[in-house]
Amino acid sequence: MQYTEDQKKAIEARHRNILVAAAAGSGKTRVLVDRIIAQLLARECSVDEMLVVTFTNAAATEMRERIDKALQKKLLETDDRETAAWLERQIVLLSGASICTFHAFCQKVIRQNIDVIDVDPQFRLASDQEMVLMRRDVLEELLETSYKMPEDEAGKAKWQDFLEFVDDYGDDHGDEAVYEAVLKLYHFCQSQPFPKAWLRQQQERYERELLEIIRQAHQEYVAYPEDQRSLILKVQVVLGKTNVLAAMEKDCDAEVNNICSQMTAILKANGRDTAIVREVKKTYTDKKAELKQELIRQTYSGGDGSGSAGHWLYDRLE
Predict the structure, then answer these.
(1) Is the pTM of this model over 0.70?
(2) How far apart are CA 121 and CA 114, in angstroms?
(3) Is 143 helix (H, G, I), strand (E, B) or coil?
């Protein structure tokens, strides 16, 4: 199986600490398994001396099965008795090896030292469904707190931003759409090597330039006398900014297509389904269409250009 240069480095690097940061579906599990196999075949250590942790039980099970399969294959291929004995021992030890989730490993450490730490001996790991409910509870509590108007002026400005946010993403039936939007963004961020840094980069990269274009359009519109302001004028101003926005859109499209092409290549190389790439493209297209409508609404709501949207723009450009 072919590897990229970075994947080879991750497999072959020795006698140093290494950090591999890569997105979901990029082949991290395969690289880690092959690194483990290489170390076992070179007898650098025994499998029971290793600690291998993952984020999900499914990934831990898959990793254990891959290691077992690779060891079994090497055992069938070798003619050396000493090597065969070593491999057989590794296969036996594999069943008790520390290949598990972060949570399972921490749980094991806590239980082994329960007498010296202040933790209820009856503690347990939350199930996936319980985690879903807990995230939902935390989000509901956060929104409920955010709805309360603060007393200080700085807090009121942020509170007004929050109200506009829920007004934009919610609907007449409540905040369900807001919950879905926040949780969807959260889950997508977790697929990035550094979620918080990724969010900051997206904001820093696009927001100021985008808001500047909106501000220019807004200023151009309100510069006209009130009796000349009309829907036709709004359309004319918007059309005057389309070239700039189109260039930004083209750059974004190119970047998304490049990312999707890389994801497709990586997924195919690892024998994975590429359906997620199609979902990413669809989500991007849908959200882009929503953003276009939101830009127009935020810029021109208020009729004469002096409504809340104008304040929304200037608050963010200070």
Answers:
(1) no
(2) 7
(3) helix
